[in-house]
Amino acid sequence: MEHNEIYLMYSIAQQLVKEHRYDVLYLNNKVEEIWLEKYENKTSTVVRLSASGFDWKNHLKKDIGIVFQKAGALRKLLKGKDIHIHNVYISPHTPIDSWEILKKPLTVQDKNPIQMKIYYLSGDEIEPERNRLEQNIGVTFINDEDHISEELMETTTQQYKVELFHKVQEKQKQERNVFNYGKPFITYFLIAINAIFFLLLELNGGSQNNVTLMEYGAKYNPLIMDGEWWRIISSMFLHIGLLHFASNMLFLYFFGSLTERIFGSARFFVIYMLAGIGGGIASFAFVTNLSAGASGALYGLFGAFIYFGLFHRRIFLQTIGRDILILLGINILLGFAMPQLDVSAHMGGLVAGFIVAGIVHFPKKKNVLLQLGALIIYVALCIGVFIYGMHQNEANPIYLLQNMEQSIQEERYEDVVTSATKGLENPEEFEAMFLFQRSYAYIHLNEIDSAIADLEKCIQLLDKPSILPEAYYNLAILYDQIGDKRAGEMIEAAYQASPTDDKIKEMYEKLSKD
């Protein structure tokens, strides 16, 4: 009887959901088909129940093929890498021709194979097939279809349908609520703060002016080494040029608002700030250039999305997941292809964002051990990378040159000599520049012999005067002061390399007359 088969299908489904913690993946009342899943030990056990019957083996075989196709399409919604499908047919009749061979386990070979077992509950085979299903999925069903009236069976079937349908609706509501926890107030606030700082830069020398950027708090390693650690934070709100500012704010508008809706305003703010700090520390440790921008914090949002995807894999892949992963991949490739981008800040922000999402976790949910562990990891990584950055910068020739430039501007010439001497221990390709800067400091310290010695070594290292005509100019001045006739030779070389430089031109004309 048809009512008996429909009741049996919904009775099995109801028991799997209520007693054995299966989730409803799909419910179709029109064709009486139900898909259920239980995730354990990295394996998805899927029970597909169908009240369809088949007259011929080929028809059954065709439906099995369709189930495999549906399973492949549903793969991204399933939690486990290993998928075991138990395909259960409940029908008053079986195929006319021999079909029992289809009961053998079937497998679709793939990177993560899909395995399927077939059950056909019909007539005298209902009890044996149900027992086989119970044994394979490790459950025991209550079998009462032979002891209740047809009227009660129909009423109970309708009740089960309604309860399962409500389960589906409740699940869909929970999934919708995941994206509607908070409103993007902090996102708009951050955009406003970034806009204010961008206008301040533009009105006070320009956002592409290095002096202005340093004045307003860009990441500059020598000053951070001198104790201005706050630059790791302030640099998050500065941008270099309109395109940099506009692209980052557009990203923040779309993805910041989405992150804030998922995690809530307070958690979003913590993720944004701590990811930005993580990106800034990574940039300090691995990049010596002056830099600024919200990229570290923005990549932290990618990290938060990935964290979200680990805990809400099905929702993530059904909605934003694929687009997020593609966009992240494109941005990572662009970062390595475009040397002007601060890849270290990007990667640091990405990792930090993922870890910080673990610290704050999700609204109305707690996982104390996970959150505490994430906090310890974040603090340890930040401290460790910062200390590593301190050691790296102390020995980095580019940092030493930057530090010397800063010392020259502040007229700390003894510090220039100290830094240059240290840099000359491992100068890489910057030996000539270290010698030139040290000679400049020696001149201001009135150590003329030392300055001349450094400049003579410096010009020996230069392939041509045009690389550093100032070295020839300074040496010409010193030679002239001590009466060395080589002054004319040096100023000639400087003038040929840079004839438009007024001070070189003036010195050249003076010595030419002499």
Provide a descriptive summary of the structure in words.
This is Rhomboid family intramembrane serine protease. One of its GO terms (biological process) is proteolysis. Its main location: membrane. Residues 227-360 form the Peptidase S54 rhomboid domain. The chain has 22 helices and six strands. It has 514 residues and is of the alpha/beta class. Strands 1-2-3-4-6-5 form a six-stranded mixed β-sheet, with helices on both faces. Strand 1 and strand 2 form a beta hairpin. The longest helix has 29 residues, at 150-178. The protein is elongated. It starts with a helix and ends with a helix.
Strand content: 5-15%
What percent of residues adopt helix (DSSP H or I)?
55-70%
Rounded to an integer in angstroms, the radius of gyration calculated over CA atoms is 36 Å
Order of helices and strands: HEEEHEEEHHHHHHHHHHHHHHHHHHHH
How would you state the average pLDDT, rounded?
A: 88
- How many helical elements? 22
Strand order of the largest sheet: 1-2-3-4-6-5
Structural class: alpha/beta
Could you say which overall geometry the principal axes of the C-alpha atoms support?
Answer: elongated
Ranges where pLDDT stays below 50 over 5 or more residues in a row are none
The major beta sheet can be summarized as: 6 strands, mixed
Distance from first to last alpha carbon: 122 Å
**How many beta strands in the DSSP annotation?**
6
GO molecular function: peptidase activity
Transmembrane segments: 181-201, 229-256, 268-287, 293-311, 323-339, 345-362, 369-390
Keywords: Hydrolase, Membrane, Protease, Transmembrane, Transmembrane helix
Main location: membrane
